[in-house]
Amino acid sequence: MKRIYLDNAATTYTNADALQAMIPFFTNEHGNAASLHSYGRIAEKAVSEARAKIAAAINAKPQEIYFTSGATESNNWILNGIVRNCPHKRVLVSAIEHQSIMETCAQLEKDGYIVEYIKVGSDGLLSMNDLVARLSKPASLVSVMTANNEVGTIQYINSIASLCEQRGVPFHTDAAQALGSIMMNVKEMKIDALSLSSHKVYGPKGVGALYVRDGFKVDKFMHGGHQERNRRAGTLNVPGIVGFGAAVEITMRDSGVNNGRIKTLREYMISQVQEKIPNVYLNGHKTQRLVNNVNLSFAGAEGEAILIMLDMVGIAASTGSACNSNVLEPSHVLSAMGVEDGLNQSSIRFSLGRNTTREDIDYVVVELVKIIKRLRSISAVKAK
Amino acid sequence: MYNENIMKIFKEAKNAGMLKGASGVGVAGNAKCGDVMKIYILVEGNVIKDAKFKTFGCVAAIASTDVACDLIKGKTIEQALKVTNKDVLNILQDVPAQKVHCSVLAQEAIAEAIKDFKKRQEREAKKNAK
Predict the structure, then answer these.
(1) Residue-level pLDDT at A384
(2) C-alpha distances in angstroms, A218 versus A77, A81, A97, A222, A258?
(3) Do A378 and B37 touch (CB under 8 A)?
């Protein structure tokens, strides 16, 4: 059967060149980057090179990059490392953050901290008025994701970070979905901390990074050895880091060509679906969105049923986010955007990738027409 | 996530559709939880001659209502009221824990359909008495 992968926001495949770059560090060059002998030095050199590549991609200095196990750890680290030792005991995050921010905030709330959720509009853009109002009182941190993983809306990070800087509140952004899709410049954008994940940019899973601006103090989260200049303990995942560095370098090198092509396909898919299927709604901002994100609500057809039927014909997509697939509640992102429950439960996210073709999209549209027709014909809810 | 048996029931959904001239219709669930089920019953005398469903919901919800229709067809109203979500689960086999509520909703939809049937009967009786 034909297989089409449109779930690149959950994870991408690992780029072949990035994979090749990793292999020696599993075998001949298997040294621990903290060891003093030649094996260790070779591993450490490879880690340094990867660090420099990642730093260059966001205009940071290499020493501002700390390797982690992924954006989830980076997000846990920044929240715990700032909020727990700040006298204000108050943190502001957007209402549409990833679970790794939301669940960490839930834990902070249990521990007596105040977490406030900044509103977003129906397009997923942060309400600047709400942010300004909430910044009138002291806070220990503001965290707003650069681009949303479910609906793809890209925030005006420049403006948000500037407001935070004016009020003297540190600003963190989860850029896991954004890297490669939009240009990130931590210096120009005045970002104090930023989370990244390797497997969203065609690198291996299980590795990511936290950028922390020089001079910005963040407490340790992982305790143990003195790795990462004594700020993040744990033996470095050398092959993963090498693959991450290579993947980022390739992503940045090819972003112009790839993004243009993928964006054209995104627009083609949205227009084809809306032309061929009635009562379909695009979730998220129409233009201010990730090049590869298509999030649609098919009124009258339930998301999981659509997903399973797509899978039966070889098409991989997602409801909300992969992290939500075992949860019954409607997506908190769509709820925060004011999408009503029925349409919320009818949403499907397609995330295109570097190997997506126009033929793939044509096939998906043909199958979608059949699936939605079938599900609507047996649905207890009218499509409107 | 789902076993082959559930997938087969979901794919076929042989009881899906509207039942013209239904004697009772029951609705259960809501859009917030992601499942809305409608069960239609055709009653002759005291026996459910036919049952159909329309469901907005996940694979487990659609399969649950399809099985529920099978379970009540040919049964008397009294027998049908004794059908529980356990009976539905027994036929589906290995339902993921978070989807067990779908079978509960299916039981609710049966009860609602029978309630509606009885209400219509009473109305009819009153009209005839006049």
Answers:
(1) 84
(2) 8, 5, 21, 12, 36
(3) no
Mean pLDDT of A140-162: 98
B129 in any annotated domain: no
B89 domain-assigned: yes
Taking CB atoms and an 8 Å limit, are A328 and B98 in contact across chains? yes
Q: Which residue of chain A has the CA closest to B40?
A: A380
Which tens digits make up the pLDDT trace of A223-265? Answer: 999 999 999 999 999 999 999 999 999 999 999 999 999 999 9
**Residue whose token pair is 């487990």:** B60
User: What's the CA gap between A33 and B63, in Å, rounded?
Assistant: 54
If you classify domain A16-250 with CATH, what class do you get?
A: alpha beta
Are the C-beta atoms of residues B77 and B43 closer than 8 Å to each other?
A: yes
pLDDT-derived band at A326 (thresholds 50, 70, 90) equals: low
d(CA A240, CA A47): 10
Note if B58 is an active site residue.
no
What pLDDT was estimated at residue A323? 47
Question: pLDDT digits over B60-87, tens only?
Answer: 999 999 999 999 999 999 999 999 999 9
- Report the CATH superfamily, name and number, of domain A4-12+256-377: Aspartate Aminotransferase, domain 1 (3.90.1150.10)
Q: Does A303 lie at the interface with B, CB-CB under 8 angstroms?
A: yes
Asked if the Cβ–Cβ distance from B54 to A302 is below 8 Å, we say no
Tracing tokens 């094996």 back to the chain, one arrives at A39
Q: Tell me whether B62 touches chain A (CB under 8 Å).
A: yes
The residue range of the domain holding B33 is 4-121
Q: Do A379 and B56 touch (CB under 8 A)?
A: yes
Tokens of B106: 């299916």
Question: Is residue B70 included in any domain, yes or no?
Answer: yes
Work out whether strand A171-174 and strand A193-197 pair parallel, antiparallel, or are unpaired: parallel
> H helices within chain B, ranges in order?
4-12, 59-72, 77-81, 85-92, 100-129
Q: Give the pTM.
A: 0.95
Query: Is B33 assigned a catalytic role?
Result: yes
Domain tally for chain B? 1
